[in-house]
Amino acid sequence: MDLFITIAMRLRAIYLFSFISLTIYGQQEPSFAFSQFNLSLVNPAYVGSQGKSVFTMATRSQWSSIEGSPESFAFAYNTERNDNVGIGLSVISDKTFVEQQTFAFIDFSYKLQLSENARLFLGLKGGGNFYNADLSSLETYNNLSDPSKVAMSRLKPNLGVGAFLTIKNNWISFAAPRLFEVQRADQEDIFAKDRIHLYAAGGTSISVNNDFILAPSIAFRKIKGLPLITEATALVTYRSQLSAGIQIRDNSSAGILSFFSITDTIGIGYAYESYLDTGLSSMNLTTHEFFIRVQLGKVDEAAEVPSESTKQELPPDEVEN
C-alpha cells in the first residue's frame, strides 16, 4: 500500500509542475575576454580616450564543441574630436541556437580635465537591439501545426550611459549600456525581456622595470535575478610589444590571453577559456576568442590612458568591462 501511495504522490507532483509557469533568468549579453581592449562596447565614455581612428574587431566561439552554442562578433570604431569630444560606433552580434540579436549604437563622450593627471569622461549611447528568432526551424514530433512556431523580428530602441575616470596610471569605469528593459517578442505567451546590465571596473599599471609592466584589473557585472559576476585579469607586457596573462571569472572558469603588436598601428590577440569544475571541464566546453586592433591616428599624449602605444610606462590598453 505504501508503494502505491508513493507512486500516486509522485504522479500528482509531476502533474502539478507541468502546469506551473517558471521564470528563468540568464545572461543576455555576450562577455568578451578582450573587453579591456574594447571598453566602448559597454561604456560610451571610453570613446575618444585613446586618440584618433581606433578600430577593433572580436569574434568569440563559446562552448565550441556544442552545436548551436553562442557565437559572438563585435566591432567598434572611436575617435577623438575637437573641443574634448569623442564619437564612435559599437556593434555586437550574438547568435545562440535559433536566436540572434544585434546591438548597434552611436557613442558620444565629453572629457573634463579635473587636474593635470586626472580626467573624467562622460558618455552617452543611442541605438537599439535588432532581435530575430526563427522558431519555425525547431523540430517537432507532432503532426499538427504549431501556431507558436513563427519567425520573430523586431527593433528595440534604447539608451546607455557611462563614466570613465583616469588618474595617472589608474582607471575606473561605470556603465549601463542599456537603461530600459524591453520585451523581446509581441506574443502573449512569451515573456522574455532584455534586462538592465550594470558594469563597474577598475585597474592600474605598474612598471616593474624598463622591460616589463604589470596590469591587474577587476570587473563586476550585475543583472537582475542573477548573482554578482566578478572577473579578475592580470596581464604582463614586455617592451610594449607582447602581452600575456590570465583571467578568472567567479572561480568557475579560467582563461589565458595574449596580445601581440605586429606594427605600431596593428595588434592581434587570442584567448582560450575553460571551466574549472572537473565535471564541466570533462565535457570539453572550451571557448576561443580572436581580437584585432588597428589605430590609424596618433595618440594624444595629453589624453592618454593605458594603451599599447605608451612606451615603457603603460601596458596595452588596460581597461576591463
Description:
The protein is mostly beta strands and 321 residues long. The chain is built from two helices and 17 strands. The chain has helices spanning 2-17, 278-281; strands spanning 54-61, 71-80, 85-96, 99-113, 118-134, 151-167, 170-176, 182-183, 193-194, 197-204, 206-207, 212-223, 229-238, 242-249, 253-261, 266-275, 287-295.
Describe the structure using short key phrases.
321 residues, mainly beta, 14-stranded antiparallel beta barrel, two-stranded antiparallel ribbon, globular, disordered N terminus, disordered C terminus
Give the SSE string: HEEEEEEEEEEEEEEEEHE
How many DSSP E strands? 17
**Assembly level:** single chain
State the helix count. Answer: 2
Helix content: under 10%
- The parts where pLDDT drops under 50 for at least 5 residues are 1-26, 300-321
The portion of residues forming beta strands comes to over 45%
Which strand order do you get reading across the main beta sheet? 1-2-3-4-5-6-7-10-12-13-14-15-16-17
Secondary structure class reads: mainly beta
Q: Alpha-carbon distance between the termini?
A: 60 Å
The global form is globular
The main pleated sheet reads as: 14 strands, antiparallel, barrel
The gyration radius over C-alpha positions equals 23 Å
Residue-averaged pLDDT = 79
